[in-house]
Amino acid sequence: MEVGVYLLHRLEELGVRSFFGVPGDFNLGFLDLIDDYTGIDWVGNCNELNAAYAADGYARIKTGSVGAVLTTYGVGELSAINGIAGAYAEIVPVVHVAGFPSLKEQEDKPLLHHTLGNGRYNVYAQAAELFAYSHTILNDPQTAAAEIDRVLSDCILQSRPVYIALPTDVAYIKISHERLSVPLPRLPAQNHSLGEAVVIEEILKLVEQAQGDVVVLVDVGAVRYNAVEEVKAFVETAGFAVYASPMGKSVISEAYERYGGLYTGATTRPEIKAKIEGAKLLISIGALKSDLNTGNFTTRLDVARTVELHHASSKIKFSEYPGIGMKYLLPKLTSALTSASLKSLTLSIPVPKWTHPLPQESDEIISQAWLWARIGQFLQPKDVVIAETGTSAFGVLDIPFPDGAVFISQILWGSIGWTVGSTLGAAMAAREKRLGRTILFIGDGSIQLTVQELSTMLREGLKPIVFVLNNSGYTIERAIRGEHRKYNDVVNWGWIHLMKALGDVDGTRTRSYAVNTKVEIDALLSDGAFSSADVMQVVEIGMKMLDAPYALKVGTAVGSQW
Amino acid sequence: MEVGVYLLHRLEELGVRSFFGVPGDFNLGFLDLIDDYTGIDWVGNCNELNAAYAADGYARIKTGSVGAVLTTYGVGELSAINGIAGAYAEIVPVVHVAGFPSLKEQEDKPLLHHTLGNGRYNVYAQAAELFAYSHTILNDPQTAAAEIDRVLSDCILQSRPVYIALPTDVAYIKISHERLSVPLPRLPAQNHSLGEAVVIEEILKLVEQAQGDVVVLVDVGAVRYNAVEEVKAFVETAGFAVYASPMGKSVISEAYERYGGLYTGATTRPEIKAKIEGAKLLISIGALKSDLNTGNFTTRLDVARTVELHHASSKIKFSEYPGIGMKYLLPKLTSALTSASLKSLTLSIPVPKWTHPLPQESDEIISQAWLWARIGQFLQPKDVVIAETGTSAFGVLDIPFPDGAVFISQILWGSIGWTVGSTLGAAMAAREKRLGRTILFIGDGSIQLTVQELSTMLREGLKPIVFVLNNSGYTIERAIRGEHRKYNDVVNWGWIHLMKALGDVDGTRTRSYAVNTKVEIDALLSDGAFSSADVMQVVEIGMKMLDAPYALKVGTAVGSQW
């Protein structure tokens, strides 16, 4: 079996059905292998950054699987590197395969195109290492299978990107497929049993003392390290109140009756804030305490009342327990928390229903405050909602989601334009998983970075709804600085013509709309054909330049950086 | 004077009038300084890769100056890195300024957005180092001016990219402007005088022995190291026959009577090939011997008859002379070669006029062979012609250029999509330098990578002619592998609608055309309004999927990589 085919088998085993990327002469040979491989489809992208974003979006929706992106040597892989770094930051398992010169070329070092002209053939791999959990250059066919297994195991177990440089000739060298008979590990190493017992005992003691006033705060680690089922069983069994961080939004269904909404520090609605910060015990799961995930560092959780469960460690008040991870810990805690008396105590603590009613506004302007509430009515169970860094991400955080609706955004990395590529990947994954509609919210500034990938969605027969919030430039940045500076202006595009340009030449395969008043958007959102998402749709929403969602307006959500 | 303003003064001194980039919250403060600075205009781009490409294109046209690009921390700078690496490979002086966390943030290391979440604040600078000749993080206001001077001097003297990380607060710290009274060095270090004398003596001896049969082969180093005037004086004084490599195309006017065309090894037209390879003495200036600059390593120059002059070294037959660079060497050689008898000898060796007549074809299909010949008739003196890696770059190489027309392409780096960004930069530079029209040739696959930057050209009032060769995908790659594989297909866009989508909503500021026959394109190219380039124009040229220019067809131009 060719090394390239071995790699494809392993990717398929991990759940990969779509392989994103851009062809280049250092990966064309491997592309033939992909094209001939039945279990995985090639999804050619318009450029490599978008391809990396797509693999990232795909991996986020296919929890427990990975995303895969193929680029060519130098020019391709470097274009993707921001997307890979973003996956690293946001704990997303992406396998980056880059075409690499043949063994003979590596030895002779001819002055090839796509090199720097100085013989430093490994320089891109050096750059890749900085943003990969593991990496390998598959120069030795003898160890290629083991190396593939090593980095892919790291990818799925550590939920971080890995890098595989695949020399053009090695892709075709035949190796044994014997290793394939042993599946890759999918579960982390077991916890140290004595340490784990201590942690469980301590937590049970704290739960008992809390007399039911226990708040569980769910964050991104829970979903990225594939512990959502364990978290659900834990909170449902004990009846604890559940809240989420922005990056943890939708990990636990927002329709769950004991779910109380988002905790974003100082910008949290006061009644929610008091419930969380005043709880007798707070169990934080998978926390990532970045600025925009903590209301710009305004979360105030008393360490003396807090338990933190992480992927590979736990913390009880001031004590850290390395090596005691949540995946195995949570089920044991759950088993220990089945007492009816505990549950009646926890259920006696009410969790107010988190709602976001439509504000009464007398004018026809589509305000941020009104829009997000109205969008909340539009969402359906199992929708996949993607929100761009900017007013969109802050706005979507205000919406309570229906059951099973999924939220993805780049709260930590915050690379504008990311959502267009990731919408492609997310929509592919949503189709594979038979989820609902894929809905993107993005501003007129951000979409310009990566707009071409809408074309790939069209080709793949995907039917996302793309809401373009046209507020005349980078409103998120105006909120920070340069409110009227020209550097925050962008060209006003003809959004209504966009899909014609990007491939729907005769206008039969997509629908585009422009709405500028509450009446117009209300009519559109109420329209059954629109709502059914039977074709790809683009909606330009005309909005005021300086209007912003609640969290941005109160001003502590984003820190000024200078 | 603020550190940021000091930097702007130095950039202006180096000839920068346009600063490309994308705003982000780590560079907004510096952007205010740019906005308020009268000598340099901010040109906001749609994304950072395009911005880097624009700075590269700008620097190529403004020989002796530099390009400048501003990005934000992490997400922005990493998106630009492929463009910077390309500038490194192709010897283009680009200053990359990246926003950086404040001094206090660097000390406290909060978990900021745009970080990897692991406190490695310097990791992007580590990546940048790999592709920069020099780099600095301006953390110390005491040395900031000296550091700026150091890296900018390297940029212009070494003609390679440099990287400046500018902390948000340091941009505003006041420093002395005293250093500005001493201009930055613009000339390389002097040659060692005794060594130089030896080299001159040896070369003069070889010239004498050659009895006029001397061929000068001009390559990219001549223009990038700012020695074009010295090369011109040298060849004109002595009357030597002049040829160019692909990367050296147009460095010497292709209308010059002693210019004989391009040397591309085995794919060179036989009559030219014989003249060059058979010359008694070959003087190679600024050579860069990459695969696609040498007909895939098929150039056959007898070392025993060759002199190589480089930026910082010379080579005579088998002897190398480090530290003896062409900038000072050439004028001294020129002074020594003024004898009338030498000139009459050299002029007795005829240089056949390089022409590319229109082939007679009986059908209406726009073939590659016919197209480039017809384009040759369309070009005017001082046009700036940009050709994308692919059939465009190979095709344009077949066209003899009129006087003063300039060719730019990415023959070594070969990052597809590069030309769109670089056309923006080149057109800005061409307007500053009052050159002619800016004309881009690109394929329907390549333009999809970076298409949004056409929007920026529109906003800036530039009037490029953009020829989109619609040959249904990546034809250059089909020539290598996967002729009918689906990974070489791309979506067929509605090119005629493109500029409406990208900002010319009412269609009054641009013109778009689609031509599919020889008659149609001939009529368009003959039309005075079109030819006058009074507005931005986009022309879709319908072509056959597998048709390719001569060099690609003969098959040695591109090596198979696997």
TrEMBL record, chains A, B:
Chief location category: mitochondrion
Pfam family, one: TPP_enzyme_N
Signal peptide: none
Transmembrane residue ranges: none
GO cellular component: cytosol; mitochondrion; nucleus
InterPro entries, alphabetized: DHS-like_NAD/FAD-binding_dom, PDC/IPDC-like, THDP-binding, Thiamin_PyroP_enz_cen_dom, Thiamin_PyroP_enz_TPP-bd_dom, TPP_enzyme_TPP-bd, TPP_PDC_IPDC, TPP_PYR_PDC_IPDC-like
GO BP terms: aromatic amino acid family catabolic process to alcohol via Ehrlich pathway
Cofactor detail note: Binds 1 Mg(2+) per subunit.
Domain of life: Eukaryota
Domain Thiamine pyrophosphate enzyme central: 200-316
Cofactor: thiamine diphosphate; Mg(2+)
GO MF entries: magnesium ion binding; pyruvate decarboxylase activity; thiamine pyrophosphate binding
Domain Thiamine pyrophosphate enzyme N-terminal TPP-binding: 1-113
UniProtKB keywords: Decarboxylase, Lyase, Magnesium, Metal-binding, Mitochondrion, Pyruvate, Thiamine pyrophosphate
Subcellular location: Mitochondrion
Protein name: Pyruvate decarboxylase
Phylogenetic lineage: Eukaryota, Fungi, Dikarya, Basidiomycota, Agaricomycotina
